[in-house]
Design brief:
Length: 90
């Protein structure tokens, strides 16, 4: 990928959303609200164990709905109190 610059010529390296840690995500929706590109979407939290003794309660977390729309601005990471996103530069 060629080097990118801001409008005034400063160097900028995009860092694209790669993954969301469902264990760390609390489903607050801050990242969803700050992303204007439709990259994220709320989903029911995936359960890892099927313990029938406890009543399951739906918990929402964020998921990557359209990773290709990510422009690498990292706005979602900047508002995440739990640091649940993983970003990578290309």
């Amino acid at each position: 990928m060629e080097a990118a610059t801001t409008r005034d010529g400063r160097p900028w390296s995009p860092s694209f959303l790669e993954a969301i840690d469902y264990e760390a995500c609390i489903g607050c929706g801050r990242c969803y609200k700050v992303c204007g590109r439709g990259v994220l979407a709320p989903i029911d939290k995936p359960f890892e164990d099927d313990d029938d003794d406890e009543e399951e309660c739906a918990t929402m977390v964020m998921s990557i709905a359209d990773g290709g729309a990510c422009i690498g601005c990292e706005a979602c990471a900047k508002v995440c109190a739990k640091k649940a996103q993983t970003h990578t530069a290309c």
